[in-house]
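Supplementary Methods. Inverse-folding protocol.

Structures were first reduced to a discrete structure-token string of length 336. This string, shown here, constituted the complete conditioning input.
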């Protein structure tokens, strides 16, 4: 039968949590949450996002709990990432409070470990966490991996889609939920914290086209700057404000997971590729063009135009990686 799930991301931009190897907990947790909500809903269940953007961790927790309770869920899931002073610490673990959640915690931890290819630290009972104490018999907290461990981060970057989808299937299968794919209406939109006609959108990737792009606390040009994104950064948006401040006539803004950016300065329908072997990254299209550097296998690159060129018997695409732009032969790339 269909079940009701409430999913949230730990921490916020004001209380960002762990970080390491170029990743931030609150950003990655928001991506995982958006993906999980989408997958649980696609399988025929009701799934809501109870993430909070409050400025302090206590406020985040209190708002998460309040929003989750408003969903009247069968199961509540909170997504987090670990960190430790010893960078060799690694693996996934799932925390629970009440004994009824032990089988689910074990199953989810095993599924994630299998998909990511990282150690399974297993289910761990915790009695000192506000979130789990609030949902002692129907809540789990996932610590996906250690951001302070390079191998864990590499595994997450490479296989996060498979891992989150596997976790969603495992949660549904172990809690009496629907597990078959089905096209369903989007989950109801939670009350917005601002008046700008906020609407959910299908989680989608966008590429920053500006040299630097301000990330703001509200979809307005005079709101607080939360950070900046450099050109060619790829972001995943799950909400759109259709009536924010006008930027060169464009009033649409996108939610990045840690703030708002003007849609005027991003490009949609982003294509990303993964290198299939060691491959040359060149200044131009052609084997006679200067090599900027050689990329290892499994490196993600982002297309910066739709232009395709033919040279020296190869098809070439203009791509970006590590803040640089260049050209690569499509024979060395796989679309992701």
């Amino acid at each position: 039968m269909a079940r009701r799930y409430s999913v949230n991301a730990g921490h916020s931009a004001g209380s960002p949590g762990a970080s390491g190897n170029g990743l931030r907990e609150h950003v990655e947790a928001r991506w995982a949450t958006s993906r999980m909500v989408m997958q649980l809903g696609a399988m025929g269940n009701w799934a809501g996002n109870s993430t909070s953007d409050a400025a302090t961790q206590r406020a985040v927790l209190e708002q998460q709990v309040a929003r989750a309770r408003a969903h009247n869920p069968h199961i509540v899931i909170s997504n987090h990432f670990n960190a430790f002073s010893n960078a060799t610490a690694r693996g996934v673990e799932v925390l629970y409070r009440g004994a009824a959640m032990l089988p689910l915690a074990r199953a989810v931890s095993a599924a994630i470990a299998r998909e990511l290819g990282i150690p399974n630290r297993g289910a761990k009972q915790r009695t000192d966490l506000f979130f789990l104490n609030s949902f002692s018999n129907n809540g789990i907290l996932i610590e996906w991996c250690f951001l302070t461990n390079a191998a864990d981060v590499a595994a997450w970057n490479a296989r996060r889609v498979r891992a989150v989808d596997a976790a969603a299937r495992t949660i549904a299968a172990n809690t009496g939920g629907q597990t078959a794919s089905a096209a369903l209406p989007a989950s109801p939109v939670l009350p917005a914290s601002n008046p700008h006609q906020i609407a959910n959108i299908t989680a989608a990737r966008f590429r920053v086209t500006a040299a630097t792009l301000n990330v703001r606390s509200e979809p307005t040009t005079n709101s607080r700057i939360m950070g900046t994104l450099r050109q060619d950064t790829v972001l995943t948006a799950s909400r759109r404000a259709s009536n924010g401040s006008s930027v060169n006539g464009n009033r649409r803004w996108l939610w990045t997971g840690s703030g708002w950016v003007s849609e005027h300065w991003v490009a949609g329908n982003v294509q990303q590729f993964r290198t299939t072997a060691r491959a040359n990254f060149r200044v131009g299209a052609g084997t006679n063009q200067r090599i900027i550097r050689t990329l290892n296998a499994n490196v993600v690159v982002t297309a910066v135009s739709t232009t395709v060129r033919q040279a020296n018997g190869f098809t070439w695409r203009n791509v970006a990686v590590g803040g640089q732009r260049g050209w690569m032969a499509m024979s060395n790339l796989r679309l992701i």
